[in-house]
Amino acid sequence: MCTGKCARFVGLSLISLSLVCIVANALLLVPNGKTTWTNLDQLSLQVMLLAGFIGGGLMVLCPGISAVRAGGKGCCGAGCCGNRCRMLRSIFSSAFGLLGALYCLSVSGAGLRIGPKCLKDDKWDYHFKETSGSYLLNRTLWSLCEEPPNVVSWNVTLFSLLVAASCLEILLCGVQVVNASIGVFCGDCRKKQGAPH
Fold first, then answer.
1. What biological-process GO terms show up in the record (predicted)?
2. pTM of the entire structure?
């Protein structure tokens, strides 16, 4: 696969994953799909850090768009620098995306380990914090949270989705850094085969 086609594939994948992260983070802000528990005192710190929106979302959306553009027609066509200028920009953009995905992964991982903030015995707190993540394997503990209803399964599902998406983003951003580096030094093989789509 030539560097241009690879960049387009990676870019489209990153754009899709960034949108998944943005939607997952938006859903975390409305526990159980209702706006009843959207007070700052009732949402966990990991939700309020907006790692899926900022890190896995916007910070990865930019390298995704940059990679798609790097896989397109070069700034000087088939001559001159070809796609090398865009590939070079894509390297820096992908490194930026890598930082965003790492931020998303670390915050989402902490969100899974600490657990959600919920009401138990008339007290809003992180009631699973002392379990160091072992509550994930003991579903009988999940019902201890009185409000919001089903908040544990809600958080576990969405934070797990963010962890998985950010891991894929890290992998794809790393692939694009290598791919774009090859593109900078060797050019885009598609210009030899004919005009790109």
1. regulation of G1/S transition of mitotic cell cycle
2. 0.86
Any residues with CB less than 8 A from the CB of 167 and at least 6 apart, and which? 101, 105
CB 85 within 8 A of CB 75: yes
Residue type, 15: I
What Cα–Cα distance (Å) separates residue 2 from each residue in 5, 31, 73, 193?
Answer: 6, 44, 14, 10
Phi, psi of 149 (to 5 degrees): -65, 140
Phi first, then psi: give them for residue 136, nearest 5 degrees: -60, -30
Bond preceding residue 116 cis, omega within 30 of 0: no
> What is the residue-wise DSSP string for 55-114?
IIIIHHHHHHHHHHHHTSS-TTTTSTTTTHHHHHHHHHHHHHHHHHHHHHHHHHHHHHHH
pLDDT, average across residues 182-189 = 73
The residue extents of the domains of the chain are 3-115+157-189
Residue 187 pLDDT level (bands cut at 50, 70, 90): low
Which residues, in sequence order, are CB contacts of 103 under 8 Å at separation 6+? Answer: 51, 54, 55, 56, 59
Q: Which residue has the higher pLDDT, 28 or 41?
A: 28
Residue whose C-alpha is closest to residue 169's, from 22, 50, 15: 15
Mean pLDDT of all residues in 5-34: 92
